[in-house]
Structures are given as structure tokens and as C-alpha cells.
Amino acid sequence: MPVPDQRDPEITRSALAGWLDRHLPGVRIPHVETPETSGFSNETLMFDAEWTGGGRPRRERLVARVAPAKYQIFPEPRFAEEYRLMRVLHERTAIPVPPIRWYEPSPDVLGSPFFVMGRVGGRVPTDMPPYHMDGWVTEVAPDERAAMWWSTLEIIASLHRLDVRELGLGFLDQPKWGATGLGQRLGYYEHYLHWAYKGPQETALKALEWLKANRPAEPDEPVALWGDARIGNVIFRAGAPAAVLDWETATLGAPEEDLAWFLFLDRHHSEGVGAARLDGFPPHAETVARYAELLGRPMRHMAYYEILSGFKFAVVMARIGQAMIDFGWIDEASDFPYDNNCTRLLARILGGDQ
To answer: Which of 97, 206, 266, 327 stands 20 to 30 A from 54 (CA)?
Structure first.
């Protein structure tokens, strides 16, 4: 969901070039693509850097990811942690993230902290409209869709197999919200729900009550979770992932949480919006079975984690609804923050529609 933005392209180009000169002396930035709208969570600026290195002209396509300054979707943005995680993934793992270059913690240059990474070419499945309804994913062959699905699943499994201690990923833990895993997630999202929107939240609160009452044990060592694991956060080239994006909700927990989110978002983008699921995308039951093979153990309590996914997304949608009210796009009396495609799907699942 975009946020109205008034960034001046020339001022932005000049400020960015002045800053980048510290890292690439003599650099030129001919043009900066500043979006007419920016994302709730982060703003993305695309530009080319030109400089002379080793006695010859050089050029690199870059992206600046800027922390939210005007409106935020999460109550506590974890921007520095996102940069730190992506640098670890880039430098020390085979997870295909964009090449991470530099971080600027001060808001003095662009109004918020930002980091710069290499720009990766390819195509990303769309959320608006959902990729099962329209866009380039509807036009490719079923075999390519299957390749997109399975290759993303392989990446999620690779992430879950990382050694958290060896890589020093303990900074992803958020003990202020509870014990690592479900205790933390329920504590955080309960706080988030009440911060996101002050109006009624019947479905989300019903889900929260159920999640608290039916919380299963998580007996295994916590793993690094993507937090937003889905094909809509992957840059694809001919069905193969070129880069995976959006690590701002990364945390520690059970692999089932990422897998359930992966499946719920796909279900939301098909059944949830009244669209038929495209041919080629494997069935969810087959996906769970394959993931158990990749991880080397059965997937536990997937029905619980599906409701958790629906609850988390309902909270996000409540915040988006509040933003739409704040920007004057919908009336403040609108029921959208608590009655939308996500909450209706969640209500059906809570009612036994699995």
C-alpha cells in the first residue's frame, strides 16, 4: 500500500551524490527515480552511479532503501536490524539477497537512515492486483510458476538450516515481547493490534483468544525466520530467484511460522480475493510434505500456524485501514480496517473452513 510522497528528485539526487562521494570519490548520479508514492515500511530510490576506478569508467545500478519517516506500518521499525541481517546473508550465506554496500544511520542526508544495495534485475509477483488475478504471473507457463514456487521453498529451507549462533543472528530476538517464538509473537502482535487501529477488531481478537488458548509447544531450537516469506518478495528471472527482499520482520522462531505465512498469503491472493488458483502452483498439502523432506522432520501444528498467519495479516490490514482513513481515502467510519479480504478468510478458517 503506497503513501503519498513529496520528495524532490533534484534535491534527492544532489544529497545522495554528495554522500556517495565518500565511498566512490568523483561519483556522478545522473538521475534518481523517486516514486510518486512510497511504501509504508520503506521508501525505495533507484539510481545509477558513475565514477572512474582503476583508470577506467565504471557504472553501477544501485538502490537506496530509506527508513519510514512520514508514516509507518509497524509500531517499531527495525531498519538497522534489517540492514545488519541482509549484510550477514549477503556476505556469509548462499541466500540470494541483493549485494549490500553501505549504511547511513543519520537522517541528515535523506531525512531518515538508509542503506544502499545493488539493483537486481527481474520481475516480482504483484500484490495489487494479486498475482493469481492479473499481471505477468498469469501469462507465464505453469512450469515456470511451479519453478517459482519450489525454488522459493528451497530458499526458505536454506534460511531455516542456518546456524543462528555461528552467524551471530541473536540480535533478531525480541525478548521484550516474551519468550522466543510464539510467546514473543503473540505479545508483539497484541501490542501491534491495539496500536494499529482503535476501532472494533472482533475477528482479530477472536483469533488472538484462540491462539492463546491453543498454543502448542515449540520443542526445537529457534531458527532464523524471514517473517515475510512469500513469492511476492522474490525477484525472479525465468522462474529462478535472483534475489529475495523485505527482511524487516525477520525474527527467531519455529520454521512452521514462515511456511504457514508462505501458504496463507498465497491462499489470501487466490481464495481470499475470489480468484482461482493458477495452474502450476503446487497444492498446499504437497508443499508441506516437501518442506518436511527439506527440513528432515514432520511439520507440526500447521493449522495453528495458519491461524497465526491470518491474525498477523489482519493486524497489518488494520494498520493499512487506519492509514487509508488518515490519508482521507476512506471515511473514518469505514469498516475496512476490520472487515476485509483477510479478516473474512480468517473468520472462515476459525469457523472450521480449512
So the answer is: 97
